Amino acid sequence: MKSTIADIPRHSKTPVPILCYHSIDTTGSLLSTSPRVFSNHMLHLKRHGYTTLTFGDLVDRLSAKTLMPPKLAVITFDDGYRNNREIALPILKRYGFTATFFVVTDAVGKRASWIERDFSTVLGWAREGGHTGRLSENHRKIFKSRNAYLASLDKTALRKELEKLVLVGHFPLMSFSELSILSSHGFEIGAHSHTHPFLAELTENDVYKEARRSKEMLQNRLRPPVTSFCYPSGNYSTNVAHIVATLGYSGACTTERSSVSPSNHNIYALPRLLMHDSYDAHKFRLCLSRWFPLYVFAQIIWKRVKQ
Ligand SMILES: [Zn+2]
């Protein structure tokens, strides 16, 4: 018999926040959360009675419509920075939390070189003073469509943000043996593609290659199966999601700013809350609350009014 929303137990309708962290460091970049802020977030979750699941376990429960506790959170890390193991892991263990680490297989044990690859032209342009004509119209359009926030900054602020991002791109990423230790301790390792491209801009064949290769490499080197996928830069399309599903992943996540509604979601486009230093205690509490969608909506309206 087909179940309906009304059949889902009442408290399983509580939205589930999936927190998305990248590097745990003090650079203040858009991809960074300082150890102090990260520690405060985890302390807040513990004090307020949250339990955690891996992303894969959440997907399984959503698919099976399993009863879920009202205070549930999922902690995820993108890109596989070594500082996740060195700084975040002891904090997670202290509070008994689990997490999912999404890694880029071609960059395991190396650096996040895609940051420089994606931003070098614009950074070069900003470093030279942002002279008109140095950046082609096409490049300008691509940059704007990929990074609306960065594209909205003035040249000085843009240059500062890009310099910080490039610095983070030089931080070491975890090796397979480090990932293997995490996996053996019950943490989930998910796929974040093979080379961190903008998947919606690739041919169908190349999307298959990226999603298949990352799954196969992780399964060969770590404890299989690898069932969770994270779209690089949150960039995906219906077609990309379909390919990810075809390859045997059970769920995937984006960077859309919202919590997951257990009664109304797309298992191959689960939203996440992108964390960084601006999430002080007040804002972190807000993002876990049911008022957060209203706050995001108000922010969008405010930006449109300002433009
Ligand atoms: Zn990433």
Describe the structure.
This protein has 307 residues and is an alpha/beta fold. The chain folds into two domains: 5-112 and 171-306, Glycoside hydrolase/deacetylase (TIM Barrel), CATH 3.20.20.370; 117-169, no CATH class. It is built from twelve helices and ten strands. The strands form three sheets. Strands 1, 4, 5, 6, 7 and 10 form a six-stranded parallel beta sheet that branches. Strands 2-3 form a two-stranded parallel ribbon. Helix 9 (204-221) packs parallel to helix 10. The chain is globular and about 55 Å long. The N and C termini lie far apart (51 Å). Residues 1-11 have low confidence and may be disordered. The site of zinc ion has 5 residues, from loops.
